[in-house]
Amino acid sequence: MGGKVVFKAYDPDQLTFLPYKLEELVPAGHPVRIVKQVVDAVDVKPLNRKYKGGGASSFHPRLMLKLLVYGYLTNTYSSRKLEDQAAQNVHFMWLLGMKKPDHNTINRFRSEKLSGVLKQIFSQIVLLLQQEGIVSLKEAVFTDGTKIESVANKYTFVWGKSIKNSKEKMKAQLDELRGYAQSIAAEELKDTAPLEYSEINPEKVKETISKINAALEDKEDVAGKVKQKLNYAKKHWPENLAKYDEQEKLLAGRNSMSKTDPDATFMRMKEDHMLNGQLKPAYNLQISTQEQFILNYTLHQTPTDYQTLPSHIEQYESLYKEQPKAIVADAGYGSDENYGVLQQKGIEAYIKYNTFDKEQKEGIKAFSNDSLHYNEADNYLTCPMGQRMHHVGDGQRITSSGFLQLISRYQAQNCEGCPMRGVCHQNPGNRIVEINHSLRKHKQAATERLNTEQGIKYRKRRPADVEPVFAQLKHNHGFRRFLLKGMSKTEVEIGLLSIAHNLRKWKA
C-alpha cells in the first residue's frame, strides 16, 4: 500500500501579514522590464506636443506608449483586451503603476497621438541598438516586402478602370443624344459642340443636357425613349459624375481602392486559402533589416515592390541622416530606376533582376536581345549571324511609376534567306530590337556584384535575415490583418509592431 496522500496548504481567503509588492512579482530580465527601461530612455517630446493644454488631466504619453508597446510585444492588439490586461495582468499593472486607461483612451492615443510621430520614437530605439553595437546603420541592410490585409470589407471595391469605362459610356450616350437632337432641331443646337472626354464633369454634362432638353421642348416628333433617357440623364448623370470625381481623387492614380478604407488597394495575397487568386484590400509593408532587427519600415499603396524602394531609402536617410553601405534585395526590386537611384546615392545595389537566377543556371537565352553584342564606340549591335544591326532611332517610355526610360532601336540589314531566321525572329521584314542601354549597363554591373565573394555572402544571408522577420510578425505573433483604417493609423500599427519586435529580440 502507498503512503498517506498529503496536499499543500491552500486557503484563498487567507490574508498575508504584509501585502505583496508588484515589484517582487516581476522577475529580473522579464520583457516588461526591458520595455520600461527602453521607453524611459527615449525622448517623448514629439508626443507631448500632440497634447493641448486645459481640460481634464491626461495619462502620461510615456505610460500610454509603454502600454501599447508591451501589448504588441505580448500579441495583445485590441484596445479592449489592453484595457483588461491593465486591470488584471500583474506585469501590465507593474508597468503602468496600477493606472487603468480605458479602451477609448487607448484607441485615441494610438490613432491620434502616435500618428506622424511614432517613427521618431522608433528611430531612437534603433539608435540605442546601434549604441550597444547590435546593429550598424552604415552597413548593408536587407530589404523585402509583404502584403498585410486591411480591416476593410473585401467586397466593397472601386476600380479605376470601371470609372473610366462608365465615363466613356456616358460620353458616347451623350453624343448619341446630341446627334439625335441635332437631326430634328439643328438650328437650336448650332452652338452646341460635342464634349471632349476631359469635359465629362457634372457641370458640363448638366449644361449639355439642359441645352438638348430646351431644343427638343417644343418638338412633337421626339421619340419616347429619347425623352426617357434625357430624364434619366438629367436626374442621375451629374450626381454619378460627382461621385466618380470624388472616387478618382481618392484613388490618386491607383487602379483600385476599398469603399470602407479608401487608402487600401486591392492586392493579390500570398495567403490564398481559397486558391482562386482573389484580390483583397491591403497595404504593402516594406522593411529593411540587419541581424533580423527592423531598421526601417514604410507602408505603401502600390502592390509592386520595385516602386517602393526610392521612398523607402529616402525615409532611412531622413530618420538617421546617413545611408547604408549596401542594399540587398530580391528580383522584385531590380528596375532601371532603382539601380539608378542607388548608383546616384553611392549605395551598392546587391539586387537581382527578373531573369538573374535563370541566367545563372542556363545562361543568357540564345537570340534574345541581351545575347546580342553591342559596340558602344560605333553604336551598333551584332546579330547572331555576325551582321551589323544599325541604329535607326530613339524613343521614350514612361513606366507605371512615372520614370522616363530612353529606348534605342536597331534594325538588321538582310534577314531574308538567313538560315537562323526561324529561330531568331518571326516578324516579316528585317528584325528590329529595342534596347534600354541604361538598364543593360545596370544589369551587367549587378551580375558582376552579385557574383563577387561579398555578393554571394549577401545572397545567402538575405533570406535568413529579412524573411524570418515576416514569419515572426505574421505567423508567430498572429498579425495578419490591420485593426485600424487609413494609412496614418495603419502606419502606427506597423510602428508599434516593429518596436515590439526589436525589443523582443534585443534581450531574447
Automatic annotation (TrEMBL):
Coiled coil: none annotated. Residues 382-505 form the Transposase DDE domain. Residues 21-111 form the Transposase InsH N-terminal domain. This is IS1182 family transposase.
